[in-house]
Amino acid sequence: MGAAFTTPHISFENVEVKYSDIVYGLRGASLRIDAGEFVFLTGLSGAGKSTLLKLVTKEVRPTSGRVFLNGRDISHAPPRHIPGIRRQMGIVPQDFALLPRKRVFENIAYAMRAVGHTRREVRERVPEILQRVHIAHRADAFPHELSGGEQQRVAIGRALVNDPPLLLADEPTGNLDPGHSWEIMELLKELNRNGATVVVASHDMMVVDRMSERIVTLDQGRIVGDQLPAASLQELLPLEVAAVVTIEEKVTVRMEDARH
Amino acid sequence: MRVIDRLEFVISEALTALSRNRLMTLAAVTTVAGALFLFGGLGYAYYRLSHYADTIPGKFRMLVYLRDEATRADVEKTAQQIRKLPGVASVAWIPKDKAWERWKQEHQTGLTEGIDNPLPEGFRVLLTDLKQSDQVVASIKAIPMVAPENGVKYMADEANFVEGLLTAMRFFGMVVGGLFFLVAGVLIYNAIRLTVLSRRLEIRIMQLVGSSRLTVYVPFLIEGMLQGIMGAAVAGGLVVGSYFGFGWLVTNHVPIPYTPAPFPYAYVFALLAGAGALYGVMCSMLAIRAPLKYR
């Protein structure tokens, strides 16, 4: 069954974000992301990648157009609804945002306590989360004792405290060397395989290309490309066309073309 | 269990904030203490003084005491003589038995047991014209049945003095206490703002993972409240200290009989703590309104 018939996890309908009279974050962007997808948002700095993510996290309000999360219009959700919306997603910031005076375990525990989990729940769940992000062996380390990749794992672990079905990562490899970048992407991919929808804003094209996932390209606030992973393209395109498409090929298709 | 866990989390967050901002906390607590000391201390002194003022005759009143041997007939005769004086509006008899009962009730000390009533018969005289007060005093003193020493108690000067003192205390309390409160408010506001700044990473994490707004706000409100309560505790100590210091000073250096009234510790401390806590919370609310908006 085509994705178009199910409720998308996230969708943007002709969204415009104006920061000032002359500065636009987005200019009429429309996009649909289905549950379980892994999507890269790429483009130059200022293209609108982070703005798209911030519309979902409610850090930015659209000037016009609508944003839906699980079919619910969150475009103008009042501030009192924001905590509830945030608990439906895990947010991974570029700068890790780890508490320097707390150990790895405590960093995750703090986030859990902050959303209302009891000490007992924390004791039970934190080791499990650390296992999921493969950092359990450094549970007693302070952030400054960790590599960049390890710090990002902790940040991803913290994003999992609500067990969210959606992960949003803004330049998660921005501060990492290629080796660690790849580790983080592998981890995000693993979480995606376990059912989470993952949306990553990145301009690290080396990593993006290597991942073979859906790539949404933005330029000056407009979505200018939506390249599906080659495997999906084979499902979408007519049989005779799919025959000539291989996994390794990079085919950029306008979003509208891919959907119809 | 979950509620206790919640409380423990927000209180520990507030205590962490207090310990991180020691210097600013100290400044805020000290100023709150100063303000509450002025309000609380002066308030209490004002209360005591106004209570005392009620017990002394006013400018239009004088007390007249008769000799110890005065009989009921002497009382009636003297009352008539005083009533006839020009400038006198009324004369009310203060029977010595009733006066003695009242004194015992007010002072409630075992020292009066077994002692015969030492008070004389007396009158409360109201004047119509202050200009004639000296004349009235002289005429009353001339009545033979009026006690020769301290037979007339007319304390216009004292009444004026106490009234002036009360006015000064009101003014001083309002202006200086008000200023202190304003400064204390600014300091609490700044202390909370600094805490917000020093804890911006924790706040960001809370907001990233979707902590409820109460969880984000409450530690800062508790911090302000604790600053207010700590200031109140210091102020309470100062008020008690001043009270007993004043008592000691009067007892040892001023040749007048002075019996300190029992100090209402619980009442004063509760009142100061309540005022401090309320003020601290109000200042904190102002301080966190903008910077803690979910973003």
Tell me what you see in this structure.
The complex is a heterodimer of chains A (260) and B (295). Chain A is of the alpha/beta class and 260 residues long. Chain A contains ten helices and ten strands. In chain A, strands 6-7-8-3-9-10 form a six-stranded mixed β-sheet, with helices on both faces. A four-stranded antiparallel β-sheet of chain A has the order 2-1-4-5, covered by helices on one side. In chain A, strand 4 and strand 5 form a beta hairpin. Chain A starts with 9 loop residues before the first strand and ends with a helix. In chain B, helix 1 (2-20) packs across helix 8 (213-253), helix 2 packs antiparallel against helix 6 and helix 8 runs antiparallel to helix 9. Chain B has helices at 2-20, 22-55, 72-83, 96-107, 133-142, 156-198, 200-209, 213-253, 265-288, and strands at 61-65, 88-94, 122-127, 152-153. Chain B contains nine helices and four strands; from the N terminus they run H-H-E-H-E-H-E-H-E-H-H-H-H. Chain B is of the alpha+beta class and 295 residues long. Chain B has a four-stranded antiparallel β-sheet. Classes of the chains: A alpha/beta (260), B alpha+beta (295). Chains A and B meet through helix 2 and helix 3 of A and helix 1 and helix 7 of B.
TL;DR?
Chain A has helices spanning 49-57, 82-86, 104-114, 119-132, 148-159, 178-193, 205-211, 230-236, 239-242, 255-259; strands at 10-18, 24-33, 38-42, 64-69, 72-73, 90-92, 166-170, 197-201, 214-219, 222-227. Chain A has ten helices and ten strands.
Write the topology of this structure:
The complex is a heterodimer of chains A (260) and B (295).
Chain A: E1 10-18, E2 24-33, E3 38-42, H1 49-57, E4 64-69, E5 72-73, H2 82-86, E6 90-92, H3 104-114, H4 119-132, H5 148-159, E7 166-170, H6 178-193, E8 197-201, H7 205-211, E9 214-219, E10 222-227, H8 230-236, H9 239-242, H10 255-259
Parallel strand pairs in A: 3-8, 3-9, 6-7, 7-8
Antiparallel strand pairs in A: 1-2, 1-4, 4-5, 9-10
Helix pairs in contact in A: 3-4, 3-5, 5-6
Chain B: H1 2-20, H2 22-55, E1 61-65, H3 72-83, E2 88-94, H4 96-107, E3 122-127, H5 133-142, E4 152-153, H6 156-198, H7 200-209, H8 213-253, H9 265-288
Antiparallel strand pairs in B: 1-3, 1-4, 2-3
Helix pairs in contact in B: 1-8, 2-6, 2-8, 2-9, 6-8, 6-9, 8-9
